[in-house]
Structures are given as structure tokens and as C-alpha cells.
Amino acid sequence: MAAEILSAGGVAVTVYERMPNVGRKFLLAGRGGLNLTHSEPFEAFIARYGAAAAHLRPILEHFPPAALMAWAEGLGQELFTGSSGRVFPKSMKASPLLRACLARLRAQHVTIRSRHEWQGWDDSGALTFRTADKEIVRVAADATVLALGGGSWPKLGSDGTWMGTLANRGIATAPLQPSNCGFTIGWSDIFRTRFAGQPLKNVALTFGGQTIRGDCVVTGYGIEGGAIYALSPHLRDCIAAYGSAAITVDLRPDATLDQLAKRLERPKRGQSMTNVLRKAINMSPLEINILREAHGVDIGTECLPIARNIKSSTLTLLAPQGIARAISTAGGVAFSALDDKLMLRDLPGIFAAGEMLDWEAPTGGYLLQACMATGVTAARGALRYLKNA
Ligand SMILES: Cc1cc2nc3c(=O)[nH]c(=O)nc-3n(C[C@H](O)[C@H](O)[C@H](O)COP(=O)(O)OP(=O)(O)OC[C@H]3O[C@@H](n4cnc5c(N)ncnc54)[C@H](O)[C@@H]3O)c2cc1C
Fold it and tell me: Which one of 117, 267, 338, 376 is at 20 to 30 Å from 195 when CA atoms are compared?
């Protein structure tokens, strides 16, 4: 995005990328359906950025979801808005959009130098890159936009090593931490063996007064998926402070306690409670065994306490999964180190954009939207800087 805006502004642009090709994480994002942005009203949208919302507000006002959608459509991608308000390309993939974007960059004479790993600056202020042949290439740039990503999925290229380079230059950063990540739960061996990989559909997870409706997946290590990702910043912070975090799972959020208790009363005598749960409430073996993991192997026979357990099972999360498998990262370049054009206050002419800045947001299109919008702001800032230089 930054390269497109800078080159459209009449500047000679070179993109340096350490990997053999660009956009690997973007391509991975498209594997499960590329959620480009979200169509909810702007105030609700901006609130998703939590503590960073105030910093991102002017940036997202300048490049809101509608602008990102128009950009993608301008590149020939038909979009659709799902029932949840999430916006996707009709193809669901990232590759056609990336191809179209790269074609536009070629048309605007942008040079891409892959297998060039940025190392920092030399004494003269030139950027230094290490090539695949381990040669050091020096480049004196009039302006630079750093868009080095966060630290998740490091094998795709973004490994956060730039944190040390910037810290050595006195740039304030917050440690990279996993965001939108899974969490460890001490499942019993029998539960883990039987249910790892199975989805928990349409549940409500509550933590710290926040309730998220959605789906998650039981894994061998614990739990992952959209509903838990949305709670991940608070869960991560609670675990860091207290060693664990207890979430409450409502397995039937659309039914009241009384409705559930009544449905459990009806069935015939002689049936096991497991059968009653299966037949009267349509509970899957996974859901029934979540009750056992949370409340003990004996489910009991009293309707009201069982209904209560269905509405409220506590699971204790012990640790966030490592950064390498997280969807995104929190932390990065502090907004206090940047001016309103995203230029590093202490390094004039050096701008930063994307996930490497200190913000986080849930899945739902908020990540790419903020990456693209900060890319726009940084590029416009760089154009203005070059004009005034
Ligand atoms: C599995 C998965 C699914 C996702 N799905 C979605 C989704 O549907 N919607 C959404 O909004 N977001 C999604 N995301 C998040 C989204 O992909 C990222 O937030 C986004 O790609 C970050 O963009 P970026 O340009 O800041 O960083 P990146 O995409 O990480 O790009 C940074 C680039 O910099 C390069 N680089 C890093 N260090 C150096 C160096 N020293 N020298 C040279 N090059 C370097 C890297 O190789 C990389 O190509 C998903 C992420 C994952 C992992």
C-alpha cells in the first residue's frame, strides 16, 4: 500500500523483502478466507482497537473500511459482506488481490528486491541489507517506510528482529506478545485424545465482564478459534499477572436456565443423563464432556444444577500459545515514538506502518484494515517529507 501511494506520488520506490517473494503472510491470511475489513459502524469499528484506538482514529478516518474496499475493487476484486459484517473478496483468496497489487506496482515502476534482509543503518545513515549471498548492500534512501510486520509465523518472514535494531537507536518499543492466539488448558488425557480438533459451535465465552459469542476449537494443548481470540488480550494479561485465567463457557447461549431445566425434566425414566442431554438438548459428546472436564466426571441427575452447568462451565487457561502460531502480535513501535504522520520522531525520514506498531485488534478484518491505513498515512507522510526536504 505504501509503495503504491509513494510511486503514484512520483517517487522512485524500491521494496526490499528478505524472503524470496513478498506477501507471504498476506497469502496465508487468505487460506482460511481473506477477511479484508469489517462493515460495522465506524464507532463500533474503532473501539475494536482498544488502548490504541485514540492513535488509530485519525489514521482510520483518513482510510476507513470503505476506502480499503474501494481499493480492492479498483484492483478488480469483487467483494461481499458476510452476515457477521465481515468483508471478503468473492474468491475468498488473497492471491488474486496480491497479483493485481503487484501488477499495479510494476506499472508504476516500483522495483522489488527480494532476498534482501534489512539489517539497520551504517555510520553514514545508509540502509544496510544482507543478500542471499551474504553480501551487504548499502542504500542511501531519501525516505524509508518500515513495514516489517509483527512476530507471528516467523518462517513467513516477519520475525521481529527489527525490535533490537530500533531499540539500539533508542526507539521506544513494547515487547511483542501473542495476540489472537490459542491457550493451554490442562484437559484430561482421555478428553484430549478423544476431542482434539473438534469445534465448539455457537458458544458464549465470558471473561472479565466481556462476553463473546462464536465458535472455537478444542485442541490437544487447549483451545483456539475466533471466540477465544477476541478475549486474548485480557486473558494474556490476566495470565501474566496471576498465572491463570478462568473463562466461563455457556454451551447454550440461546436458551435460558429455566428453559434448559424444563427440557431436562421431560424425558422418560430409565434413560442415562448422557442420553437425556443428547436427546433433549441435542448436546454433542464433546459438549457433554466439557461438562465433565469442568464439573467432574459424574454429571449428576438433578435438572437445575445440570442446566446451570450447561450455562456456566469454568475452564482454566494456563498460558497463551507461543508467538510463532499466533494470528498476530501485540507490542511493537510505541506511538509515543511516532509523529502523526507515523515518522519516527528521533529518525527524520524514517516512517513505520503495519503490525510492527504497538496496537492489537481481534480477527474480523481489523488487522489488515489497520495495516493498510497506517501504510497510507506513512506513505503520505513520506511524500510530504520529501517535498519539504
Ligand atoms: C493464519 C493467519 C490468518 C490471518 N487472517 C487474517 C484475515 O483474514 N484478516 C486480517 O485482517 N488479518 C489476518 N491476519 C493478519 C494479517 O495477515 C497481518 O496482520 C498482516 O499481514 C500484517 O501486515 P504487515 O505488512 O504489517 O506485516 P507482514 O504481512 O508480516 O509483512 C512484513 C514483511 O516484511 C518482511 N520483513 C520482515 N523483516 C524483514 C527484514 N529485516 N528485512 C526485509 N524484510 C523483512 C517480511 O518477510 C514480510 O514479508 C492473519 C494472520 C495469520 C497468521
Answer: 267
User: How many helices and strands (H and E) does the chain possess?
Assistant: 15, 18
CA 114 to ligand 1 centroid distance, Å? 16
Residues in contact with 295: Cβ distance below 8 Å, sequence separation at least 6, in sequence order: 309, 313
> Closest Cα to residue 377, out of 36, 99, 14, 57?
57
Contacts of 283 (CB under 8 A, 6+ apart): 251, 277, 310
pLDDT in tens, 186-203: 999 999 999 999 999 999
Ligand 1 in contact with 22 (CB < 6 A)?
yes
Cβ neighbours of residue 143 closer than 8 Å, sequence gap 6 or more: 11, 349, 350, 351, 382, 385, 386, 389
Q: Is 74 left (phi over 0), alpha (psi -120 to 50) or beta?
A: alpha
CA 329, chain centre distance (Å): 7
Ligand 1: which of 68, 166, 327, 358 to mutate, judged by most atoms within 8 Å of the beta carbon? 327
Chain Cα centroid distance, residue 64: 18
Condensed to tens digits (0 to 9), the pLDDT of residues 197-223 reads 999 999 999 999 999 999 999 999 999
Query: How many angstroms is it from 314 CA to the middle of ligand 1?
Result: 34
Which phi and psi (to 5°) does residue 162 adopt?
-60, -20
Predicted confidence at residue 387, as pLDDT, reads 96
Whole-angstrom distance, CA of residue 163 vs CA of residue 169? 10
Locate the domains of the chain by residue range: 2-179+324-388, 183-320
Class of domain 2-179+324-388: alpha beta
pLDDT of residue 268: 63
CB 14 within 8 A of CB 110: yes
The CA 280 to ligand 1 mean position distance, Å, reads: 46
**Rounded Cα gap, residues 27 and 288, in angstroms:** 38
